[in-house]
Amino acid sequence: MHAHDSKGLIFDIQGHSIHDGPGTRTLVFLSGCPLRCNWCSNPEGLWLRQRLMYKPLYCKNCSARCVPRCAKGAARVVESASRPIIFDRTQCDGCDSMDCIEVCYARALQPSGKWYTVDDLMRVFTRDRCYWGSGGGITLTGGEPLLQQEFVLRVLERCHDTGIATCVETSACVPRTVLQTVLPYIQWLFVDLKHMESAKHQDGTGSGNELILDNIRWIRGTNWPGRMVVRMPVVPGFNDTVANAEATAGFLVDIGLSEINLLPFHRLGTTKYEQLGMAYEYAEQAALSQSCLERLAVVYRDRAITCYLGADTPF
Amino acid sequence: MARTLTQIPEQSGTPIHSQAGGRASEKAVDREVKKEPCPRAKKLRDLYFQTFSSASNEFPYWYTRRYNQLEGEIPVVRRAAALKEAFSHLTPTILPGELLVMGKTHHYRGSFPMPWLSEGYYMAKEDELYKVALAKGSSTVDELSQFGNGGGNVTQSFGNVVSIAGKFGMRREEIPALLRTAREWVGKSVDDLGHKYEQMVPAYPMKEAVMRAIVCMFDSGFTLPQGREVINYYYPLEYGFDGLIHMAREKKAEVAGRADGDGWAGMNRLYNYEAVVLILEGIQSWILNYAKEARRLADFETEPQQQREYRDIAQRLDSVAHSKPTTFPEAMQMIWTVHVAVLNEDAISGLSPGRVGQVLYPYYEQDKAAGRITDDEVLEWLQLQRVKFTCIDCFASMGVVGGVLSGNTFNNLSLGGLTKDGRSAANDLEKLIIEAAIRCTSTQPTLTVLYDDKLPEDFLLKATECNKTGTGYPAWVNNRGAIDFILNQYGPEGMTVEEARAVAIGGCLETSPCSWLPLHLNAQEYWILGGSGQPTSVGVHFISLPKVLELVLFDGVDQRTGQGVYPPHGKKLESYEEIVAVFQHYFRLTVDCLTTTNNIQHDVWRKQNMAVFNSLLKPDCLLKGHLINELGYRYNGTYNVESCGTINLVNSLAAIKKLVFDDQAASLEDLKRALSDNFGFKTALEVGSFSLAEQERKDETGKWDRIHYLCLTAPKYGNDDPYADTILKEWENWFCRMCHDYESLYAKPMYACQISVSTHAPMGTATIATPDGRLSGTTFADASLSAYPGTDRNGPYALFESATVWDHSMSQNSQMNLKLHPTAVQGMQGCKKLLALTQAYMRKGGFHIQYNIVDSKMLRDAQQNPDSYRGLMVRVAGFTQYWVEIGKPIQDEVIARTEYEAL
């Protein structure tokens, strides 16, 4: 794919989002991510490129128009009522033309994202801003939104100029210089921390945590006037231990942060793995128990850190 | 096969543990102890769940008997005397545990037929009913097992119970008397007489064709001639029944023999006042019969508490029968008695109590201040009132009750709005009304918040909390928009801004004119409010807009039956503008023939079956001496034109414009062939389901796939797409104005009413495939501004943007039903954010919105019918996915969690 300097790849825009920042917000999911978290719930946002999503639910089992349209010969018919077409992903995932999509009348085939210009996105914000109510605004999330740094910077600048409150949810796994350029235009930051032990972090996400911790510490040290809330997905068997909570709390105390938002693991993204033809390690993972979350919360609260569980936040 | 009484509703789809708008598992109810009804209300509500809807013959028998005796009497006196006779003979029933007493009949829930309005239904079924009545009771078990859907509805006869009008059970032995009574009215009922004269309208044959093709559903004048209005409790509250009788007698003396400058109707006042006296006397003896029954029960009762309650009831009824109420419980009993009395006078759905929290506030305030009552006691009364309202049933033909109303009686209670001097009218009693509705969830009364920016946030949040019970109430209505509409429509009849602030919702969503009146209670004056207008949703009932379009495309011929409906237009339809012009022509023909024929029906009603009791309640009948039929009401321009299927029309016009004319991707002939061939699908009737999701393909060649795809992907309303939204705006601007060109029998201009109630299902059944891609026989989009299921793909903000392209205050209403996943409104923050969403829609000029939220039934339905819930999203922090695309096991998990978290 060519560099889309003036465009951003977005895999979803959600109006009336209430869980990702203060007030009611329009949530923009940007494609591409430096991490590969095994439990990720938005797998369609992992790559900064479009992938084919096949939704058997909508497949009307037509005369398989998509099969002959595939230049790579990746699509073939199988006699299965629940999943009539199979795509050879080794071929399919390298395809940019996606000719198959336009012949699918049932819209069972969709690209995993759409390219937006800054103006496209600003039109959506301009429309939505009268619905947010007080305290609302936009939240850029992903994927890792800061991977599309030029696009994001231009969007944030425009928001700043037009008085739209901005929030970014980031992994902080990006170069310091990127943070430096965007930070002045952000009022609210969610930083997603996954594990305090770098080796474990490497296991779970494909990267160590040094850059992330450094960035959080650095942001904390600047005179940036915004509010930073650390978020941690609590993943069963990965970071749901008291030891990790203690280490995290220690880190927060150390840098002078006093709140954390724990997000319990959910497997709602399972279907999207199927639609992308990917395997999902956590497909059968049972939900996290409330008692486990409560146990972790105690660790933070004992250290005077306000701990919000899931959607139960004061903002 | 043997079944207990509790198992019957279970198998018919409404288990004992059902709640309005959803189904709560027994466990979930147990966990939410805080939101349980009070024990007294729970017991009575449980009894409702276990009770079948029953019809009685008492009222029609006594009414008919007296009416026949008085042949030759002045019509209004004859009618009032018959009503008095009927009221005086109703058997009183009081159940243990009741505080609020009296009901429509001696049955706990149910109603009775009014053959003077329409008797044709029983006559047509006479043979069949006799057969059932005479059959032996031996086959009970088999018949019982046939009992179909519908909760407490008796849709089929069983045992000694005969099903009538598809909803009510009547004792077998009462059937011959029912038929005998009905026969008395052959040729005399509003239905029969109206039919005789409506045929004299030259366009009558077209009306017949329009009804047969189901372009329109239901006549207006004899089905539910009143209702969709706000009742007025003021006069009995201010004067008491003795006071009113005294007043009417004085007035009689004043007007007897005097025309007072009105050569047409001045002399009628004497007879009208005489009728008022008669009906009030009838209602008094009806109340006193209940008092007598309470005393009789008290004498038998051995349990001291229950005995005391019976005696209190008797005392309250004695007082209510004669005097103005002075305490909150007395006022509660009075308004309930008045409400039931109006419902017994005529066939009525949608008799709304209006802003009753503001009517009752003086009693609440004074009782509280004097330490006579606590909030807990008030909450108990309010819950008991909910159960009473829920027990009301409406007797009309099966088509009307089932097809239009889905059995709902629409006793809509309004909250909020503004005071006479323009301040927030919300009060503490209204918060208790909301709390009672949260604790005792039930279908009636449903709640509506008249949203105004002046309402305090704690009140609004309380209402939002109630939304999260999943019952669907309260609905949110734009108070400023309602005031604009009311002023515009009733300005010519003298409506002022101050008076417009008294507005409330009558029926499900009918903006209705009301008035302020000074109530005196213990030397204090309060301005309370009540209805002062004629019924609404009368005149031209539901016109199926997509069906009219079908007739435009096929030169006036109904494609379902092959019958001609309109004169052939003979046009080639070579431009979009030409299609719109022919549509407008056909639509005008429809409105004209329906207005004229229904005016005649209503005119017959007003000559023989005028409201006497409902009239005397409303300003300014008592003052003027004229009842509803002689323009005695303060506001009379209430007749309207109703539409159905707006969004399917808009999307269809957008598809035609785009495909055929702009892109020239298909010819109109090709499109018509595709529609006739149902895009290669079987018809809904063949498939046996009217849900879009379950339609089956018939044609394997896929020859219509391309055109169907183009139809489906053409611009759709609900996506902030100016292409489709402009068509909506143009349609509304034309429709809302053209209604003013038609005149009701009261010589007032009509207006647009845009609610589909339940007609979008039967009307969809009668309409072939439409150019928006909708398949033959399937249901239309509901309401008037909800997107067609699955076509709004850009979230609620885009939908709101589309909905507000036109000025909603041009119409009596517009309607938006929005489905939200429970995860989208979690917690107190969720409440605040839901409120922000509502406020934003209202500020944009949206007239109405209601939410379907914590409703596990909806989530289950979405599992079955994913295409209808395409846009429903699961909201979890940082996550994006549509509900329907999540796998079933995980959906089940979320459903289980939703039930657990149900508020």
Fold and architecture overview:
- The complex is a heterodimer of chains A (315) and B (903).
- By secondary structure, chain A is an alpha/beta fold.
- Chain A has two domains: 7-48 and 114-309, TIM Barrel (Alpha-Beta Barrel); 52-111, Alpha-Beta Plaits, CATH 3.30.70.
- Chain A contains eleven helices and 13 strands.
- In chain A, strands 7-1-2-8-9-10-11-12-13 form a nine-stranded mixed sheet.
- With 903 residues, chain B is of the alpha/beta class.
- Chain B has a domain at 53-186.
- The radius of gyration of chain B is 27 Å and the shape is globular.
- The two termini of chain B are 36 Å apart.
- Chains A and B meet through strand 1, strand 2 and helix 10 of A and helix 31, helix 34, helix 35, strand 21 and helix 37 of B.
Question: Layout of SSEs?
Answer:
The complex is a heterodimer of chains A (315) and B (903).
Chain A: E1 7-17, E2 25-30, E3 52-54, H1 66-69, E4 75-77, E5 85-87, H2 89-92, H3 99-103, E6 109-111, E7 114-117, H4 118-128, E8 137-142, H5 149-162, E9 166-170, H6 176-182, E10 188-192, H7 198-205, H8 210-221, E11 227-234, H9 242-255, E12 259-264, H10 270-275, H11 290-302, E13 306-309
Parallel strand pairs in A: 2-8, 8-9, 9-10, 10-11, 11-12, 12-13
Antiparallel strand pairs in A: 1-2, 1-7, 3-6, 4-5
Helix pairs in contact in A: 9-11
Chain B: H1 7-11, E1 18-19, E2 22-23, H2 26-31, H3 39-49, E3 54-55, H4 58-69, H5 75-88, E4 110-111, H6 120-124, H7 126-134, H8 140-145, E5 161-164, E6 168-171, H9 175-183, H10 190-198, H11 204-212, E7 226-230, H12 234-255, H13 268-300, H14 304-322, H15 328-345, E8 348-352, H16 356-359, H17 361-369, H18 375-390, H19 398-404, E9 413-416, H20 428-439, E10 447-451, H21 457-467, E11 475-478, H22 479-490, H23 497-500, E12 504-506, E13 510-512, E14 514-521, E15 524-531, E16 539-544, H24 545-553, H25 576-608, H26 613-617, H27 621-624, E17 640-644, H28 646-662, H29 668-676, H30 684-687, H31 705-713, H32 722-738, E18 751-753, H33 760-765, H34 795-803, E19 817-819, H35 827-843, E20 848-852, H36 856-864, E21 873-874, E22 881-882, H37 888-901
Parallel strand pairs in B: 3-4, 7-8, 9-10, 10-11, 16-17, 17-18, 19-20
Antiparallel strand pairs in B: 1-2, 5-6, 11-20, 12-13, 14-15, 21-22
Helix pairs in contact in B: 3-18, 4-5, 5-13, 10-25, 11-25, 12-13, 13-14, 14-15, 18-20, 20-21, 21-35, 24-25, 28-31, 28-32, 36-37
